[in-house]
Amino acid sequence: MIVKKNEIFSGISRDFCQSVAVTPMSENKLYRKPINVARGRQLELSHDSFVGQSALSGDLESKLRDQQSRLAQLENEREEIERQAQALEELNSKKHVFLSTQVEVTEKLTNACTLIDRELLTIRKELQELEQCRQAFDSRLKKIAKFDPESWKKENLIDNLDKAITIIDLAADEYEQAGKHFASMRSGGIFGTSKRRRTATFDADTGEFLAQVKNGLAFNLPIITISLIVLVIYLLK
Hints:
Helices cover 86% and strands 0% of the residues. The protein has 237 residues and is mostly helical. The chain has a domain at 147-236. Helix 2 (157-181) runs antiparallel to helix 3 (202-236). The longest helix has 144 residues, at 2-145.
């Protein structure tokens, strides 16, 4: 009985010693475990922080590239707008020159056409009148050319001379009237009087009148001379 009590006591002591020896080991293990967890967590946080910073840096770089690309695009758009504005300015300048020149040239050409039409109308009218005058003069010349006192009979000589002188006087009157009519026209020089040579002074008018008288005498003098010769011959017979 005593032996069993000793064995029991010995067993209890042994268990107690084992429990006392194990307790510090377990405490050390429990004490070190949080330390390992804290370091791991710090490593994880450091890694996460690095990863976050890398992601943020990459995001900023991406945004920077986008902004730079946008700035380049805006710069191209600005240059294009400036080119279009310059082209529009040149177009407006050319349009202004065109419109002003168009108005000026159109006005000049219109006035010129109007004046030319008037001038052509005046010239056509003058040409028609000159043609009529020429036909009248040609008719008088043909009649005067037929006068041949040598072939006239003695008894009809005076009458024929009177008729011839009358026709010649009419021709001279027509010539003077034509000269006065065309004096203010371009063809006035044909009759010795032209618009350029006419003046408003008395001396110029007198000189023109004397010129007309001389022209009339020069035109009629041969006929008058022939008539006088024929008359003298007739009287001598």
